[in-house]
Amino acid sequence: MPVPKKSLLDPSAPRRHMHPMLIETESTPNPATLKFLPGRTVMESGTRDFATPEEAEASSLADAIFRLGDVTGVFFGRDFVSVTAAPGVAWSDLKPDVLAIMLDHFSAAMPLFRPASAGFSVPSDDTVLTDDPADADIVAQIRDLIETRVRPAVANDGGDIVYRGFDKGKVFLQLQGACAGCPSSSATLKNGIEQLLKYYVPEVTEVRAV
């Protein structure tokens, strides 16, 4: 039976308290990736990268976005979520669906991760090198530069670059979020990060992505 309009205006009628929110979007250097800013903290610390639907099952939000079928990556930063569209998918078509999922999630204050799935992404053994203890001072300098100079700048572009090892002058880094698959990522590694590390740490001879 239809609800009389009068009851909707009745002060004594129970009301649902809605908390309107606006999710802003920003483009990134990677045309396939869009950055979504919900105006609140997404990750209290660290980051989390989802490159497959299976990985996304750890998070109800990432899982829902992957289920759209036109997504190849979801990345959680401190105050943003980056989403990468599949090849050939227009953001003009995908964006409304992603926004709807995020609005539902953040408006309801739903947990970011499913029980027993929270935490940071754990790289597989084949992407992490065991640093030589003799290089401890060099590695400490490299890590500090990445944390203070590289990652904040990359986060502005909707991605992350994580240290994965140092071996005989070579620094190995993993690209996540908007950085993964970005056409300009090679230039960023060579012309930006590599030059920065070489300048401050003479022992560095090359930077490679893993």
From TrEMBL:
GO molecular function: iron ion binding; iron-sulfur cluster binding
One Gene Ontology term from the biological process aspect of the record: iron-sulfur cluster assembly
Organism of provenance: Sphingomonas aerolata
Family matches, as InterPro entries: FSCA_dom_sf, Nfu/NifU_N, Nfu/NifU_N_sf, NFU1-like, NIF_FeS_clus_asmbl_NifU_C
Top-rank lineage group of the source organism: Bacteria
All residue ranges annotated as the Scaffold protein Nfu/NifU N-terminal domain in the record: 23-109
Similarity section: Belongs to the NifU family.
Pfam families per UniProt: Nfu_N, NifU
Record protein name field: Fe-S cluster biogenesis protein NfuA
